[in-house]
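Q: Can I see a sequence and its folded structure?
A: Here is a first one.
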Amino acid sequence: MAEDFKIPSLKVDEIDKKIISILHEDARISYTDLAKKVELSRVAVQMRINHLVENGVIERFTAVINPAKVGIQVSAFFNVEVEPKYLESVANQLENEPAVTSLYHMTGPSKLHMHGIFTDNQEMERFLNEKLYAVKGVVSVDCQILIKRYKSRMGMKL
């Protein structure tokens, strides 16, 4: 029965992996330049990328912003314990908060792991008091502030 819920995987060959790797480094590269790097025609590369997008392998192309360059000084990770019956409603409220950059349901029946970014500690404190602690069903919050980033996922490498 568990196999009914299995997400079908798409066969990704070595050329697709190379294309994804190059796009991961520079998503703005032209089809022509990418084609030269993987030794295919521009049309073949475009078709492969379209196929990867249509099948959900590539979810989106995006710009990665350096938070410090736009005044974001505080990056924090939160473990939020929630009463089980409120888990979905709490997650739905938090996912719509602009300060929340990622939100995951973690092991355990009522744990949410969240990342948030703030201009300063005062903004984070307002978020905690006015947004997070005020949500019905939140039992406790553990917060850790980022000191230094060594690596960030920015997409999966194959």
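Q: Show me another, different protein.
A: A second, unrelated one:
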Amino acid sequence: MQNLKRILLIISLITFFNCSKKKEDYTQYLNGYWEIKHVTLNNGTEKSYKINETVDYIQILNDSVGVRKKMKPKFDGTYSTTNFQEKFTFNLSENGLELNYKTPYYSWKETIQSISKSEMTVVNDNKDVYLYKRYQPIKLD
């Protein structure tokens, strides 16, 4: 019985340390330009995006606040945008990094389930899954 308790404790500790993520594991790659690559709606419908007219610019401002802007890339490497930006707060949950948006008209949550230098998976309140890729500007010679 004592050996079984030790084995269960060891398994629990290994699982905890392997599964626990820190906020920095998500936020270290978040800043920058992202474009939607693929969406799977909660009803199973899938849509791939070959070309995006706009990209999302995301910037972490401090330990719990960030902003998101829609940007329209131009062929000369610059971007056009409005001054409108959505502020969000973020916190770590068991599902990933939660981004909580609130405007005078609406509030919603998105959860970043995974992120790397080049890709990000986001789930919204409707359980739609968005696969983003890091935006690479079009370079014309």
